[in-house]
Amino acid sequence: MARLRGLLLCTALLGFVCLGAPGLAVEVKVPVEPLSTPAGKSAELTCSYSTSVGDNFALEWSFVQPGKPISAAHPILYFTNGHLYPTGSKAKRASLLQNPPTRGVATLKLTDVQPSDTGTYLCQVNNPPDFYTNGLGLINLTVLVPPSSPSCSASGQTSVGGSAALKCSSSQGAPRPVYNWVRLGSSPAPSPGSMMQDEVSGQLILTNLSLTYSGTYRCVATNQMGSASCELTLSVTDPSKGRVAGALIGVLLVVLFLSVAAFCLLRFQKERRKRPKETYGGSDIREDALAPGISGQTSMRADSSKGFLERPPSASSATTTKSKLPMLV
Q1: What is the rounded distance in angstroms from the CA atom of residue 329 to the CA atom of residue 320?
Q2: For residue range 9-44, what is the model confidence (pLDDT) as tens digits?
Q3: For the structural domain made of 21-144, what CATH number should be given?
Q4: Is 28 exposed, middle or buried (CB count within 10 Å of its CB: 0-12, 13-18, 19+)?
Q5: Among the residues of the chain, which ranges form H helices?
Q6: What are the φ/ψ torsions at residue 259 (nearest 5 degrees)?
Q7: Could you tell me which residue ranges the Ig-like domain spans (predicted)?
Q8: 278-289 pLDDT per residue, tens
Q9: How far, in Å, CA of 310 to CA of 291, rounded?
Q10: Which CATH architecture group holds 151-236?
Q11: Which of 54, 125, 164, 291 could be bridged to 156 by S-S, CB 3.0 to 4.6 A?
């Protein structure tokens, strides 16, 4: 029993000596709450440590984009062997609040922060031999950005009885903006039963549309940095009115066609009545012309019986005609 007590006492004393020995433990402290800074301003990422700084002391700040593991961290700056080495895309905007950081303060100052600076920052202190802690602190930074001007769009069947979806979205905004749709003008708003709005996605769904739903709708995107809006005009159509209008237009076209046809027919008949009677020239062949060898007197008697008086052919023409006939015996 005495041996067991002595063994436990030696173990406790050895642990106390090891923990109290300089250079064997590093304790890093960072804020627990996330940090937020407006875009364009400066951010101070507080980091402190407790250890006895030796010749092997080293400090490293690194950055991890949102949603990625710590192993994907990109270095921002190093301090080792008494020198500071900024590196990476943030090198020109990153510095230490105290340089050299050998008095327990390793705070990082980042100027002109941008939306791409949002993520997790790692403050890591190494002071070999360090066997008891990892000397690592994590700080979450959010760069605050007001919502950009959102874009509004509509989809669906925008006719009476149909459904339509109004969408609104901002490409920028941190924290993520919320969206609210309102109807402009004095017309009554759609009934709650036919309207469903999602403030996160920015979508407004309208069901069982009627002509009273036509009008201008405004979407407002808001976060703690400000707000922005866009507008959209919704036009609800009535298909039945379109069919009636189409039938009316068809009837009018038919009536117009018939009117033009009747006008053309009447004009044609009128022109036909005005056309002069056909006259025959001397060289024309007529059905009532005298056959060769028939005397003019016979023709005159025949014509006299009909009430007409025609001039007998001249002697020269008769002689010419008779001369061409064969002599009959």
Answers
A1: 20
A2: 333 333 333 444 444 578 899 999 999 999 999 999
A3: 2.60.40.10
A4: buried
A5: 2-20, 239-274, 296-304, 315-323
A6: -65, -45
A7: 22-127, 146-235
A8: 555 555 555 555
A9: 15
A10: Sandwich (2.60)
A11: 164
